[in-house]
Amino acid sequence: MRLAIKIAAFFSFYALLTACAWTVQATDPLYPLYQKFLQASRSDDIEILQDNLLSSRVSALWHESKEASLDEFSPIFKHVSSLTGKEHSHFYAITGETACLSVNLITDNAAAVAINTGFVLEKGGWKVDDVMLDLLQSEQDFVIKATCPLSAEDFLLQAEQSF
């Protein structure tokens, strides 16, 4: 009888643990999209990128640029997709129709980086709107919450203040 109770308790605990892990993954709508973005970028799948993954703003800029590949249009987008290594952690935040995902990564070259991706909600789905790559000194500098990419204006302002 005691063995049956222990087995039942173990399976109940395991089921609860599994359900909690699944719930955490299932509530993050951005990370699977980020993975699709990386995959489509690595394979230069322009149609998937422009039609399904990138925001209308980014797609319009790409069309206007008349660049044939992602690398020519946005070297940073392509570079981010080329980074490989061990993911340390990731965080996301959603505020209305904008969202951010930060992924901490140790690259194969042992560099610590934070990839900050901005998303916008369009036609009922999240679309990649911006990407920023932070080269860090070490793992101790990893972000501990979702960080949105800086706008071009904020980036220039921050650069001016650091000189």
Automatic annotation (TrEMBL):
List, alphabetically, the PROSITE patterns matched: PROKAR_LIPOPROTEIN
What protein name is recorded for this chain?
Answer: DUF3828 domain-containing protein
Name the keywords, alphabetized: Signal
Which organism does this sequence originate in?
Answer: Rheinheimera maricola
Signal peptide span per the entry? Answer: 1-26
